[in-house]
Structures are given as structure tokens and as C-alpha cells.
Amino acid sequence: MEEQKHFKHPSFYPGDAPETEHPFSLYISVWILLFVLSAFSYAVDLAEIQGYLRWFLVTVFAFLKAGLVVGVFMHMAWERMAFLYAIMLPPLFLLALIGILAVDGAFVYYIRDLFMPLVGE
Amino acid sequence: MAVRLTTIEPWPPTSEVFALHVGGADVPLLLIAIMTFILISSSGTMAMAVTSGYKKERKKTAFLILLTALGGVAFVGMQMFEWSKLIFEEGIRPWGNPFGAAQFGGFFFMITGFHGLHVSIGVVYLTIVAKRVWEGRYDKLNDYQMVEVAGLYWHFVDLVWIFIFAFFYLW
Description:
The structure holds two protein chains of two kinds.
Chain A: H1 24-46, H2 51-73, H3 81-115
Helix pairs in contact in A: 1-2
Chain B: H1 2-6, H2 14-17, E1 20-22, E2 25-27, H3 30-54, H4 58-89, H5 103-135, H6 137-141, H7 145-170
Helix pairs in contact in B: 3-4, 3-7, 4-5, 5-7
């Protein structure tokens, strides 16, 4: 009799099983790494770094942390490639949209500044 | 973001608005930093809960999930403190504030409000899952997958906070 195939964790299908058990030490080291990265982002603020360097550093630390959380805590690193693409591609398109909006936003800002500067300035 | 970019009025200085007054000096973003550490820690305990779940360690799993939920409660509690401070003492409203661009309040309350709501829902969700683990429901099923599903929810809430912390508070 064939086993009923309702949705189960991949580990139920022998031969195609991603690893599901990791030592606590892995999570604790990721945890510490997340702490350190958060501290770095916070340090960027404390050091009063401004402008492009600030945005660059904050963004880099945020994406590193996101990668750790998604990859290790959410076990994405042990999933098959097709699943990885299915999850990661849509946010990339969103990112492109945000980029386009940023360009447009800069243009709108320029127009506004040109035609309706702040009252009383 | 387009809205924020297009305002001509200066954006309020988040670093100062969210400062905590500690020992006679303003420490910028202190509460937010603590909240971040708490949420990250709760994500850590959740990841350990999922691992314990796969090992079918019933009590340990339930305990770790409950610890995660407690982290969530602490987070929401601090957020309540933050909101009341901003509303009652700083006079920040969704339609305006004394520091700069009027859009700031709307952004802040909507973004952190929705995130806080999801954390609160997560706390209830995790408490229910912890109760079920404790009662041995997943032992009977011989399947701790529900713990992993709850974990995915919680990690995603943490993920969203990472981006809020970076792009709203620090940007």
C-alpha cells in the first residue's frame, strides 16, 4: 500500500532528505553573530556616521543579518535549489521596484523644491 | 519610501527622537537596541526549540517555545512603553509632529504597529503550540512539524524587525 502523501517534512522521504538536526552550538554561534552585527549597526549610529557611508553600512549589516536568519534559523541553506529560487526571486523584483521608486522620488523632490519651496524659508 | 524621499521638510532625527534619558544623558536608540537584542534572542531560542522538536524532546521544546513567547511579551511591552512616550511626551501624531516631516508619525505608527501586532499574534500562537507540545500532542502524531511552522512564522517576524531597525530607525 502506498503511503499517503500529504504534506510532510522532506525528511519523511528517504533519499531526498535535507538535514533537520543541527547542534545547538550552530544556533548559538549564529545568535552571537547576529548580536555582533546588531551592535555594529548600532555603533554606526553612535559614531554619528552620516550620508552614503551610513546608508551603505546599515544596509550591509541588515542584509547580512537577514541572510543568517533566513539561511540558518529558517533552514533555507539546507533546502533544494528550486525552492530557494522560488522564495528569493520575488523579493529581488520588489527590490528593483524600490530602486525605481527611489529614482522617481528623487525626481519628484527636485520638482517640488523647484516649484514649491518651504513656506517661510 | 517614495513618500519619504519626496518631502521637502527634513525628516525627524530618529536617533534623537528615540533616545532614552539615562543617568542625565540622552542615549540614542537605547530602547530600540534592547528590543532588537531581545527579538534576536527569541529567534535564537525558537531555532533551538525546532531542533529539540526534531529530537522529540518534549519538555525541552515546550520550555524553549515558552521562552521565545516570553521574549515576544517583553518586546511588545517595551514597544508599548515606547509608543506611550512618543505619544504623551513627544507629541508625535500620525498627522504631524514637532520634529519635522508630518509623514513621520504615519510611517512610524503604521510600520511598528503592524509589526507589534504580528509579534502579539505570534505570542498567542507560540503559547498554544507550547501547550500542545507539553500535552504531548505531537508525540502522538509522531510529527513535530508544527513546531517548525511556528518557528518560520517567528523568524519571519524577526526578519521584518531587522529591516525596520535598519531602514526606519537607523537610515
